[in-house]
Amino acid sequence: DAGVIQSPRHEVTEMGQEVTLRCKPISGHNSLFWYRQTMMRGLELLIYFNNNVPIDDSGMPEDRFSAKMPNASFSTLKIQPSEPRDSAVYFCASNEQGLPNTEAFFGQGTRLTVV
Amino acid sequence: SQKIEQNSEALNIQEGKTATLTCNYTNYSPAYLQWYRQDPGRGPVFLLLIRENEKEKRKERLKVTFDTTLKQSLFHITASQPADSATYLCALDPTGANNLFFGTGTRLTVIP
Q1: What SS3 state is found at A111?
Q2: Closest residue of A to B44, CA-based?
């Protein structure tokens, strides 16, 4: 398996524009996580899906952020409208819930810069 | 509020020495704790998991301890090498719901 695949790797956009980040989890994994990493706040959990259903979105910072998982092999994180303070590295991770205490597998991340 | 703190933002040690990193947490009672390694420009990579009923776990040159009374985990790298230079993150699942929350990380530099 190629691991968790995120696209794009880098995104530069102007303030106010819509941004869509994409993630393909590892085949067979039924849990998917979106994280945001900044120097100030570290790695923050934004939202967590299990079997394509959002379980906990309490980490989503504002209504400008939304995430979907239409099927087991694809998820998106959308920011509309984007702001400079959204600049960060966004990671997607997946694992197989149901097994006790399983590790999370991370993608390479998307570095977002909002100017 | 719930917190996961790693003792220092950066740690420099001489090659061959043992690096010790600390992870402290408050207001949690996790069933397990994990440690990850993150290299620049990459996502975190899992290293070790230790359960609440385990005092110590080893994997090659890595050793993790877990003290649920002190609410602390220690991560040791023995015979450190320059290739061990990276950021190390501790993570725990506070509710058992498979949500992993991470500490802020410690950037380790091993000096040749």
Answers
A1: strand
A2: A106
